């Protein structure tokens, strides 16, 4: 793959052009990854609605039928179900850790084995997330294990 970057001060925004002999899985992954930029989520806290950059969200969790977004310093209630959030975050570093949780892999500081073939993810905000047995193999694949 060849990458060419051209600086053009006349442009108002970044423009990406992909030239390829055929559209294969690799090209589709590149397009998905590019689509992850500039993604914003909406969360509510203290009666106000906030726009959250996807990269700032450490993890998302469903508790009592409500979805919450956790950043390094705050918790926001999201207006959608976890599966809807998972669809919106396709192509990002978010991975399913359990039926109730999505974790932003960019915020994972360390991983260690836990009981019953589960994994424990230590996040850079100091919290720990348990990956269920069902989703542990996907996490290992993401690590290349």
Strand order of the largest sheet: 5-4-3-7-6
Strand residue content = 25-35%
Helical segment tally?
3
Gross geometry: globular
For the termini, the CA-CA separation is 25 Å
Q: What number of domains?
A: 1
Question: Using only CA atoms, what is the Rg?
Answer: 18 Å
CATH architecture: Beta Barrel
Helix content: 10-25%
Explain this structure to me?
Helix content is 18%, strand content 34%. The longest helix is centred in the first third of the chain and has 11 residues, at 25-35. By secondary structure, the protein is an alpha+beta fold. The chain contains 3 helices and 10 strands. A hairpin with a 2-residue loop joins strand 6 (94-98) and strand 7 (101-104). The protein has a single domain, classed as LytTr DNA-binding domain (OB fold (Dihydrolipoamide Acetyltransferase, E2P)). The chain is globular and about 50 Å long.
Chain-wise SSE layout:
Blueprint (H helix, E strand, L loop, with lengths): L24 H11 L4 E6 L2 E6 L5 E5 L2 E5 L4 E4 L3 H7 L5 E5 L2 E4 L3 E6 L5 E5 L4 E4 L4 H8 L2
Antiparallel strand pairs: 1-2, 3-4, 3-7, 4-5, 6-7, 8-9, 9-10
Name its key features.
145 residues, OB fold (Dihydrolipoamide Acetyltransferase, E2P), 5-stranded antiparallel beta sheet, globular
What is this entry, summarized?
The chain has 145 residues and is of the alpha+beta class. It contains 3 helices and 10 strands.
